[in-house]
Amino acid sequence: MVLDGMSQEEILKLNLATGVPIVYTLNADSTVATKKVLGDMSSAH
Known about the structure:
Helix content: 10-25%
Number of domains: 1
Strand order of the largest sheet: 1-2
Structural class: alpha+beta
Number of helices: 1
Shape: flat
Radius of gyration: 12 Å
Number of strands: 2
Mean pLDDT: 87
Low-confidence stretches: none
């Protein structure tokens, strides 16, 4: 939630595919430098 800057309402509406890893690379100040979804998100509803 904090890494993506999402509100609680946005999190409740978020659909993630089961077993699909999301990899975050952080800057020295702990902000997100990159975000990669590894795999196929088409199975998310």
